Task: structure prediction
Amino acid sequence: MTEFVAHQYDDFQTILEALNKERKYLNYGYRKSRSDSYEQKQEQLCTLVYDAAEIQPHHILIDVGFGSGEQDFLLANRYQFAALHGFNIASSQVEYAQGRAAALGLKKLHFHHGQAESMAVMASGQADRVMAVECAFYFDRSRFYAEAARVLKPGGLLVLADITFSDRLKAFTRLADDLERVGYLGKNQESWEKHFHTRRLQTIHRETIPGAQQTVGILLRMILKHFRWKDRQAYRTLWKMAVSTQITVIGFLTRLIRYDLIVLEKK
Ligand SMILES: C[S@@+](CC[C@H](N)C(=O)[O-])C[C@H]1O[C@@H](n2cnc3c(N)ncnc32)[C@H](O)[C@@H]1O
Result:
């Protein structure tokens, strides 16, 4: 499962670089106003998480599932912090982020190839904040919550922009490994509350629907405009993403899928 997801995001990084897309966010975004552009919405989802994390200049931060690292360059531009460690399983995204940080001389950004569920390079109690923007549904959640608690200082925060199934789809999540990873809120909450107090649980699906629907259109345009036969693998990845995103939008509209901002404090 993890290997399959890594390949998918490796492919996606190749596509974004081939298209020369300047801002390489990979999230649905958070709409504040009707006039927001797609990329403004994506930035706003990241800053929603960063603001909820109450980042301070002495903080050691961890960003899991950082995509191409775009969100961490935004963070470095707008917020004061001591150091950031990113973890991502897609090697091409890690290489891209490392290269960009080196070119910009941003020595406090450290991008690691590795799983959010096992951040071995981090010492126990080293971090002040762990952040996960639209990615925890890929993780083995019980291992991830335990690992986030291990690396955080007492009172440290885990902040997530997270997609899960509603409790009404409890039985459905048992059908496949990837659905089980997404999980349903009741089960995920029971799992994180072994290590964390829930400080905030705010539904944000209304603000994320516009960007999610726009994502489907963007993926379909990429497929139609840029498809070449030799890129069949990339083509399949784009189709899968377009279909799964459209299903997610329908899930948001019917409230069978939730999008939440979650702030957890280490016990
Ligand atoms: C939907 S993208 C979100 C990227 C980024 N957070 C953003 O908002 O633009 C999900 C990211 O999570 C990463 N990922 C998936 N499973 C992971 C795992 N087990 N550990 C670390 N990263 C993972 C993927 O490689 C991808 O970069």
Remarks:
- The chain has one domain: 2-206+256-266.
